[in-house]
Design brief:
The chain is mostly helical and 110 residues long. Helix content is 56%, strand content 0%.
Amino acid sequence: AVMSILGIKDFDSYEADMDGRIFETEVGADFTDPRNYFASLGISPQAFTGQSEKVIRAMIKGAFYPLAQQWHPDKNPDNAAAAETKFKELGAAYEVLIDQDKRRAYLQSA
């Protein structure tokens, strides 16, 4: 349900291309998070270094789902506008970080 609200239609296709590749891009301590995607989800990009794609996806999902539930506009009727903004921010971060190619491009853009 959360995925459809965020406009991510084919969540399972993300799993289809998962393999054992290791995240090889070194992310230095001086990395700046241009759109705050890592900060939004409370993830350190340095934690990805040397991890398999499967582990990285699990880290992203584990960070995203509780926050998405917490900030879902239906769960925040008294502050729906702020919740919707935060919810969309989380969805944008998830969409980029969960996709290996989008994540790589995002890391290189910083």
